[in-house]
Design goal:
This protein is α+β, with helices and mostly antiparallel strands. 21% of the residues lie in helices and 14% in strands. The chain is globular, with a radius of gyration of 16 Å.
């Protein structure tokens, strides 16, 4: 049972690691006009899912990286 629990913990931490890269023009705490359509882009592991939440209505948008690691 201890081995199973350890395996689950290891799998969780391995799968939780994201490799999302943003271009330098996009960064933490940047300000965007609310309710305006904005195009974001970046790179990650192929097939990785990225979720973005805005602060004005808590809507969640998502993207999945393609085979070339672009999203």
């Amino acid at each position: 049972m201890k081995r199973f629990c350890a395996l689950v913990v290891i799998m969780f931490f391995c799968s939780a690691k994201a490799n999302i890269i943003l271009p330098s023009i996009l960064n933490n705490n940047m300000v965007l006009q609310q309710r305006l359509a904005v195009t974001l882009w970046g790179w990650g592991n192929p097939g990785e899912v990225l979720k973005v939440t805005n602060t004005w209505d808590n809507a969640i948008d998502s993207a999945t990286t393609n085979a070339n690691a672009h999203w």
